[in-house]
């Protein structure tokens, strides 16, 4: 991020206002762009995140509460600083982006943590307005195709990659934006979520593209290997997975040689999901998925349904378990309650078979994690009859992106070539 003139280039952004997995999707895009453009990434101030307010003692949250941003291997690839550090470096009279005197106090009030209420004493808005004013808005949002054009060493691979980008980016509602000199030269690139349609509601691999598949796969590995939850989240999930597998083993279900399975899993979304057609009764879940589960198999259900009697029809046939059943095993009284959904995600991702909720980004991330684990597409399903088997078939990213994840995000990413189908043994 150091330029010939000795001045650092930065990337700043405003947090998405949606649920956690929408926030995560935007963050992955931001990180890919920061690394690809060699910029120092400025984390926004801590702030209350939608549906992540379980810890009443600390409502304001920063991304470092969930991700290992202090990891030396990540810091080597992208310098990460706080808003406070950024303003200290560059907001003074001798900095690159002097703060206007009449706005200085309001902006400094928001530098550590802020609220998305304009009338608050610690409102985020003065900070956002300042960053929008001094930064370049590249006008990239969820409908964009942001393309980094670099010639591939292997011309044939490069042509195949360009053809796939062309196919995805010609879909209705997509807008192509190449990484150009204006974006490259900007000392500060700012991503705003207030502009109409400004949300980065897409998967990083369906918004940022590199015409060289070697580089494209590198960034898919970058997200997999560096943008994972903190070790404490995996540690708690690992203890519960071990306990589930022990119960499964006693019922005749052993984990596979990769340490997965021994139980199966579901994600049943019941809360404020706007897509009413996927909120189906437990009887329908049972009818649509019973062919996937073994007799009396341990079935771990990740859910936001508070009334567990909802699942009684399923409990009649299977050994149903929830996160609360492993409170002591997982040491959950010592875990940040905002991490519970993330722990649920990891546990569900290790099930022998999995069935989730279509249109849910929570389910989507579980299916991607299963892909990262190397689990076959034939082991991931939806609980809705119409969409039940759509994950079995290879589909390139298409509208609407957030409804599901796509295999191009994980299949074959350890190689140097574009992959356009599942390996032949996968079905």
Describe this structure in words.
With 427 residues, this protein is an alpha/beta fold. The chain has 13 helices and 14 strands. It has helices spanning 20-37, 72-77, 83-90, 104-109, 125-134, 155-169, 181-185, 213-226, 231-250, 282-289, 312-315, 340-349, 361-372; strands at residues 10-13, 40-43, 47-48, 60-61, 80-82, 144-148, 175-178, 188-191, 208-210, 264-268, 298-303, 319-321, 354-356, 380-382. The strands form four sheets. A five-stranded parallel β-sheet has the order 12-11-10-13-14, covered by helices on one side. A four-stranded parallel β-sheet has the order 5-2-1-8, with helices on both faces. Helix 13 links the parallel strand 13 and strand 14. Helix 9 (231-250) crosses helix 12 (340-349) and helix 12 packs across helix 13. The longest helix has 20 residues, at 231-250. It is globular. It starts with 9 loop residues before the first strand and ends in a 45-residue tail after the last strand. The model has no long low-confidence stretch (mean pLDDT 92).
């Amino acid at each position: 991020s150091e330029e010939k003139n000795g001045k650092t280039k930065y990337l700043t952004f405003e947090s998405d206002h949606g649920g956690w997995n929408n926030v995560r999707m935007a963050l992955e895009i931001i990180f890919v762009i920061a690394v690809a453009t060699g910029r120092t990434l400025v984390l926004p101030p801590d702030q209350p995140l939608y549906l992540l307010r379980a810890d009443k003692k600390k409502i304001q949250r920063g991304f470092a509460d969930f991700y290992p941003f202090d990891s030396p291997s990540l810091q080597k690839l992208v310098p990460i600083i706080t808003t406070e550090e950024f303003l200290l470096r560059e907001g003074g009279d001798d900095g690159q982006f002097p703060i206007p005197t009449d706005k200085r106090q309001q902006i400094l009030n928001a530098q550590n943590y802020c609220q998305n209420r304009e009338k608050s004493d610690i409102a985020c808005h003065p900070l956002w307005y300042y960053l929008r004013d001094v930064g370049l808005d590249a006008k990239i949002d969820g409908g964009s195709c942001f393309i980094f054009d670099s010639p591939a060493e292997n011309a044939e691979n490069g042509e195949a990659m360009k053809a796939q980008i062309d196919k995805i980016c010609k879909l209705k509602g997509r807008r192509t934006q190449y990484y150009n000199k204006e974006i490259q030269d900007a000392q500060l690139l700012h991503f705003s979520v207030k502009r109409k349609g400004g949300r980065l509601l897409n998967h990083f691999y369906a918004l940022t593209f590199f015409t060289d598949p070697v580089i494209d796969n590198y960034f898919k590995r970058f997200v997999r290997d560096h943008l994972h939850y903190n070790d404490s989240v995996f540690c708690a999930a690992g203890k519960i997975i071990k306990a589930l597998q022990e119960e499964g083993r006693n019922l005749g279900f052993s984990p596979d040689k990769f340490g997965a399975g021994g139980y199966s899993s579901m994600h049943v979304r019941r809360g404020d999901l706007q897509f009413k057609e996927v909120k189906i009764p437990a009887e329908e879940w049972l009818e649509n998925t019973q062919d996937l589960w073994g007799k009396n198999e341990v079935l771990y259900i990740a859910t936001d349904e508070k009334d567990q009697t909802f699942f009684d029809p399923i409990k009649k046939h299977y050994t149903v378990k929830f996160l609360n059943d492993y409170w002591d095993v997982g040491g959950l009284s010592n875990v940040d309650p905002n991490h519970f959904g993330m722990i649920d995600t990891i546990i569900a991702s290790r099930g022998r078979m999995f069935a989730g909720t279509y249109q849910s980004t929570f389910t989507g991330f579980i299916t991607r994690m299963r892909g990262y684990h190397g689990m076959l597409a034939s082991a991931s399903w939806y609980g809705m009859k119409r969409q039940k088997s759509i994950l079995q078939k290879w589909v390139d990213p298409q509208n609407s992106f957030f409804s599901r994840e796509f295999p191009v995000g994980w299949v074959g990413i350890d190689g140097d070539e574009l992959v356009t189908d599942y390996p032949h043994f996968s079905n």
